[in-house]
């Protein structure tokens, strides 16, 4: 039975902290429940980020790039399925009011953006720390940190509005086509 208030949901700050921690240490145990699904999403985004970096390496052979691109397609399909599972878990945890104003994106989609922004911030921090100062990466960090703070605040507000019944969301369903094939 769904909790009317969604009290079982972790806070966005808790989620962001868990994702940040697992970015630097992928060996951390996977938590249960919604946090576990979000960790799966984050791990998928990390793997996709790494593959995308590989495809951009100078001197990478075309066959290796093509192989990485196919693996990225697989990860992207997985990512969409996890976003759907995140939305289903939140939908199960909160009684949505059908008459509430719909939000423009689902919580799962917003958490996907949060995950990618955490990864981008992490990689920028590492590059700024380890790379030459003249690249100017240090100047990007305040912007990224502001974006993170505002996105966390916006997701928390969206979830609060869903809990109180002033907003609702349509759980994400990926209906992507890959060439002539329908994604599973």
Short structural summary:
The chain has about 180 residues and is mainly alpha-helical.
Helix content: 55-70%
Work out the helix count: 5
Strand content: under 5%
In terms of structural class, how would the helical and strand content be classed?
Answer: mainly alpha
Extended strand count: 4
- Which strand order does the major sheet show? 1-2
**Mean pLDDT across all amino acids:** 89
Task: Summarize the SSE layout with pairings.
Layout: H1 12-24, H2 33-55, H3 62-93, E1 101-102, H4 107-130, H5 140-164, E2 167-168, E3 177-178, E4 181-182
Parallel strand pairs: 1-2
Antiparallel strand pairs: 3-4
Helix pairs in contact: 1-2, 1-4, 2-3, 2-4, 3-4, 4-5
Structure description:
The chain has 184 residues and is mainly alpha-helical. It has one domain. Helices cover 64% and strands 4% of the residues. The chain contains five helices and four strands, in the order H-H-H-E-H-H-E-E-E. It has helices at 12-24, 33-55, 62-93, 107-130, 140-164, and strands spanning 101-102, 167-168, 177-178, 181-182. The strands form two sheets. A two-stranded parallel ribbon has the order 1-2. A two-stranded antiparallel ribbon has the order 3-4. Helix 1 crosses helix 4, helix 2 (33-55) crosses helix 4 and helix 4 runs antiparallel to helix 5. The protein is globular and about 55 Å long. Mean pLDDT is 89; it is low at 1-5.
